């Protein structure tokens, strides 16, 4: 279906056979590709147009690659290889055939509490690894940067949400294929383009000697971690109801709403969503970063600890 001849050819990328375009960004195209040597199977290749970037932007790409090199977690997209030609950087990545979580929210309208928990727990496990083990903050957590590896087919248990206008349509059945008892599969955090190292795994201190670290450095580290926690609150909110907590057509008004932490659990969409889920979100969408939940507090919250059976029983 995707003719090879339509795919662009890049110098020095002969090993890989580009199959289709999967996404793009400001300076990059992302392709699904196959290893011509047959050793590695399919990968994703982020082709970055070096020639459109200034030296600062180029340095940032190298930083992104350097950070990814040091990461190893089942819920984080793995760096397979990195190379460059005169005009391009080639970032070879573990392929996430399911694509963006964003598209699944659009497709399903919103996720059940069980499915949302299944997704956000995997994101949280990756964040815990970044914040507590690697000393990295991601700083760009959003549904477009959450990719997934689909679960092997299992009978679906996800009820199809009713859409306006469904009344006069033929009943297509109650269930959505591809989202089953096993969830949607393995979620993987991608795009470390804005990520930052807050401490070095060698010294375990933020760029200095143990015991000599100034309080503002320690606070800085805490603040930057809390950025990811806020974003997780936005993602969880969006998963559960299908729209983001903060939105306005005017960027100015939107910025003001975010600054004040002005959001609501809008009726009727939130009427049937548990108070426990709302409580967890409110601890993430807390304006004061000192009071906002850390990843440890998030993982200890009753809504996260709860099993799927308990949700069903409580409903
Ligand atoms: P940018 O910094 O331009 O946002 P990303 O790394 O987020 O670049 O990649 C852009 C898009 O390409 C993603 O949102 C996703 O749709 C797709 N993509 C990136 N990496 C992969 C991957 N490993 N597997 C599948 N799709 C990917
Ligand atoms: Mg991105």
Topology:
Layout: E1 16-24, E2 28-35, E3 42-49, H1 55-69, E4 79-84, E5 88-94, H2 101-108, H3 113-134, E6 136-137, E7 146-150, E8 185-189, E9 196-197, H4 215-241, H5 251-260, H6 275-284, H7 295-300, H8 302-305, H9 308-314
Antiparallel strand pairs: 1-2, 2-3, 3-5, 4-5, 6-9, 7-8
Helix pairs in contact: 3-4, 4-6
Bound molecules: adenosine-5'-diphosphate and magnesium ion.
Magnesium ion binds next to loops.
Task: Please count the helical segments.
Answer: 9
**Oligomerization state:** single chain
Given helix and strand content, the structural type is alpha+beta
Provide the list of bound ligands, each named once: adenosine-5'-diphosphate, magnesium ion
> How far apart are the termini?
45 Å
Radius of gyration: 21 Å
The SSE order reads EEEHEEHHEEEEHHHHHH
State which percent range the strand residues make up: 15-25%
Binding site for ATP: 46, 144-145, 191
Domain Protein kinase: 16-304
Protein name: Serine/threonine-protein kinase srk1
Keywords: ATP-binding, Kinase, Nucleotide-binding, Serine/threonine-protein kinase, Transferase
Explain what this protein looks like in three dimensions.
The protein is an alpha+beta fold. Helix content is 35%, strand content 17%. The chain is built from 9 helices and 9 strands. It has helices spanning 55-69, 101-108, 113-134, 215-241, 251-260, 275-284, 295-300, 302-305, 308-314; strands spanning 16-24, 28-35, 42-49, 79-84, 88-94, 136-137, 146-150, 185-189, 196-197. A 5-stranded antiparallel β-sheet has the order 1-2-3-5-4, covered by helices on one side. A two-stranded antiparallel sheet has the order 6-9. The chain has a two-stranded antiparallel sheet with strand order 7-8. Helix 3 runs antiparallel to helix 4. It is globular. Mean pLDDT is 89; it is low at 169-177. Residues 22-23, 25-26, 28, 30, 44, 46, 77, 93-96, 99-100, 144-145, 147, 190-191, 193 line the site of adenosine-5'-diphosphate (ADP).
């Amino acid at each position: 279906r995707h003719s090879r001849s339509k795919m662009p050819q890049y110098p020095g990328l002969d090993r890989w056979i580009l199959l289709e375009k999967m996404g793009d960004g400001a300076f990059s195209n992302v392709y699904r590709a196959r290893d011509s040597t047959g050793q590695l199977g399919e990968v994703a290749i982020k082709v970055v147009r070096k020639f459109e970037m200034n030296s600062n932007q180029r340095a940032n790409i190298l930083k992104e690659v350097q950070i990814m090199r040091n990461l190893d977690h089942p819920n984080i997209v793995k760096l397979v290889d990195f190379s460059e030609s005169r005009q391009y950087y080639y970032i070879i990545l573990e392929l996430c055939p399911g694509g963006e979580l964003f598209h699944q929210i659009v497709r399903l309208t919103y996720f059940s509490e069980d499915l949302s928990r299944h997704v956000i727990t995997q994101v949280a496990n990756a964040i815990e690894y970044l914040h507590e083990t690697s000393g990295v903050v991601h700083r760009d957590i959003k549904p477009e940067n959450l990719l997934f590896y689909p679960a092997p087919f299992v009978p679906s248990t996800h009820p199809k949400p009713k859409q306006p206008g469904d009344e006069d349509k033929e009943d297509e059945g109650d269930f959505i294929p591809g989202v089953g008892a096993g969830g949607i599969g393995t979620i993987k955090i991608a795009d470390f383009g804005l990520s930052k190292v807050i401490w070095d795994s060698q010294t375990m201190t933020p760029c200095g000697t143990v015991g000599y670290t100034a309080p503002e450095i320690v606070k800085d580290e805490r603040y930057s971690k809390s950025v990811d926690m806020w974003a997780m609150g936005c993602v969880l909110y969006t998963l559960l109801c299908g729209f983001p907590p903060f939105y306005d057509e005017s960027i100015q008004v939107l910025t003001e709403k975010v600054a004040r932490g002005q959001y609501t659990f809008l009726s009727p969409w939130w009427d049937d969503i548990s108070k426990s889920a709302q409580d967890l979100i409110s601890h993430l969408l807390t304006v004061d970063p000192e009071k906002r939940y850390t990843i440890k507090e998030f993982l200890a919250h009753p809504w996260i600890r709860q099993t799927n059976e308990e949700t069903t029983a409580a409903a």
